[in-house]
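Re: your question from the hallway

Yes, I did run it. Sequences:
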Amino acid sequence: MAALLLVAHGSRRAASNNEVRHLTDKLREVASDRFEQIECAFLELAEPLIPDGITCCINQGADEVVVLPYFLSAGRHVSEDIPGIVAETQARYPNIPIRIAPYLGESSDIVHTLLELAIK
Amino acid sequence: MAALLLVAHGSRRAASNNEVRHLTDKLREVASDRFEQIECAFLELAEPLIPDGITCCINQGADEVVVLPYFLSAGRHVSEDIPGIVAETQARYPNIPIRIAPYLGESSDIVHTLLELAIK
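Structure:
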């Protein structure tokens, strides 16, 4: 039973955090055949934080967790903060693989998505 | 002659700004038939800033500029800062339409892009 955890930065603005939760709902609609759980978590400023999000997935039965950074650039958050937090959490659950997927900005699809938005 | 201006937040980290410039190069590869100029600009912390990016497009012959916010959420930057800067710049060039496209996070494609990253 694999879980997908979408990880966003988190904002003081509730509407921005709710955009992430809404996106998580949409992911559930299209990906429930690939992941039995799909949740979101935040690096800071909103809840759940990443360790709590991972723990929640594992407590609900996940035997693998894929952490997907909802970030556009490979800054410190993507290159250091998220891997550090995941490594600490992994140490608490040595038998459950926790894998970090490529961050959103790394996807080659972005170019086409941007073009579609531009010509609408 | 339409110009596309990809607008990112800008970072103190040069590599993050260069990711945006690299993405702009990739946009040129796929969209040069739709836009005769494709440039990038930044809200802050990197150059060119948005007014300079728009002016550059117009000075090179653009008769229309599409500003495309490379942002994931509709926070203050997307809802207030960018429209404010664009309106000020529009006032300087009343005969050149400057249109703001939907921001990246608003695209329904994002769900599928995230899923592809998750299952790689």
